[in-house]
Specification:
alpha/beta, elongated, 280 residues, homodimer, Rossmann fold, 6-phosphogluconate dehydrogenase C-terminal fold
Chain lengths: 280, 280
């Protein structure tokens, strides 16, 4: 027996497409419905040939027992009420958005079977064309239950994420948003600021350092605007701390204080080296 | 006939080791002398088996017709006078340091055959153990002549860099330092600051974004302290501009101004996407 009989995926980008591919490969769903408002995306999804139905009409999700919002946070918030009208109370609903407090608060009010989640997988390369059934393999899939979360829905979402190859970890929506403001949202804010600062005429004189450091600045602007704005206070707090640390390095350079500068850089280096040896 | 009869490489790290390997592979040198003060490095260099002599005694460079300082900028400045005592006026001398104005000013006073250079290759992984004969293949090798530079020395260094697989580009030491303050030194300052800002307990909850954005923060602290301090004014200027751009993103988030935020992020994204399609 399949884990779900009818899985509906709303949003067919990198994450939605990869979930669909992984569902198919791991025989998780009886049938898979893909929803996108873009005609070109629907055409691409049809080509892959794994969907039982692809449609621009969100009412086609009717009858599903798992619905996944694989849309940007802002879109998920806008679509939720329309989805509610067509799905049953028993349907398990999740999302894969990068911020959780705002989304969970709204969606658990609408859907009795809602469990927030956030797979820590992805890339600056968006679109179903870059989707892969192995995207979640070995990665961390954060699940964010609350006191109101249905226990069966929680268990099934955790099992679902494991069947996709990820390891599931539970934390509260609030803690998720604090942690991710540092480990994901801040690096994006820094990368966007950094590439903005480099004059265009100097770009040809760059090596791997600038490329790596700004790689995530190639991410979608609207998606990231919504992430920053739905995790506003945490992101502002993280940026303030970054500003303090930039000011400390700047001050050591301005004062020609090699001792302090080496101490700051050495501490940063040790932390970065440790990052490579850690796993969630 | 070989391009040089005796090449001395002072400093046997990633760059020095890679130059030695590339010299051997491309039959550029009659013999190669490697100098390092570290016993473990000398032992590693011996194991590679491409040096005709490895030594901790800098006087062994005597008789070379090309000498390369492959040491950190600070070390190059400290060693220059001692090297001068043992090599001939005709010897061609270069360095591979990441800042050029301070080094070129001092070394062209000491060595009649000096030409500054800076191969835009490297990695956060240091040490001769990571050296590779192909490190410079297809990369940009910046050469920084001045009005005082000997023409034959300049031609031979440019030819040398091409024989190592790089493409040589000439700019002034001053322009080099301005450009690199944006394309290399600023990304490093940002990465060091960023990893410093992320609380250790949150590090396990990170994905590719934080890893890429802070990869260069695993670089050597002393090396980077000297780079920042020998390019102080340019680095301070670049950091100030970064601070302004961080403040702009922060302000748009604080004001909940989605329109301005998307505009900033979109502009950054377009620039970053263009970076991938550019070549020096």
């Amino acid at each position: 027996m399949k884990l779900f009989s009818k899985v509906a995926i709303v949003g067919l980008g990198l994450i939605g497409g990869s979930i669909a591919l992984a569902c198919k490969k791991n025989k998780i769903a009886g049938s898979i419905i893909g929803i996108s408002r873009r005609k070109s995306t629907l055409a691409n999804a049809k080509k892959i040939g794994i969907f039982d139905c692809v449609s621009g009409d969100i009412r086609r999700v009717k009858g599903c027992d798992l619905l996944i919002f694989a849309t940007p946070v802002g879109t998920t918030l806008r679509l939720a009420a329309r989805v509610r009208r067509v799905i049953a109370d028993e349907c398990i609903v999740t999302d894969v958005g990068s911020t959780k407090e705002v989304v969970v608060a709204k969606l658990e009010n609408l859907f009795p079977g809602f469990v927030g989640s956030h797979p820590l997988a992805g890339s600056e390369k968006s679109g179903i064309g870059n989707a892969s059934s192995g995207l979640f393999k070995g990665s961390c899939w954060i699940v964010t239950p609350t006191a109101r979360t249905n226990r069966l829905a929680l268990d099934k979402i955790m099992l679902f994420s494991r069947r996709l190859g990820a390891h599931a970890r539970c934390i509260s929506p609030a803690l998720h948003d604090i942690i991710l403001s540092f480990t994901s949202h801040l690096p994006h804010a820094a990368a966007f600021s950094l590439i903005t600062t480099v004059p265009v005429r100097y770009l040809p004189w760059s090596a791997g350092g600038l490329r790596d450091t700004t790689r995530v600045a190639a991410s979608e602007a609207q998606l990231w605007a919504d992430i920053f704005l739905t995790n506003r206070n945490n992101v502002l707090g993280a940026i303030s701390l970054l500003q303090q640390n930039v000011a400390k390095i700047k001050s050591a350079i301005a004062k020609n204080d090699r001792g302090v500068l080496i101490k700051i850089l050495k501490h940063a280096k040790d932390k970065r080296v440790a990052l490579d040896s850690r796993k969630t």
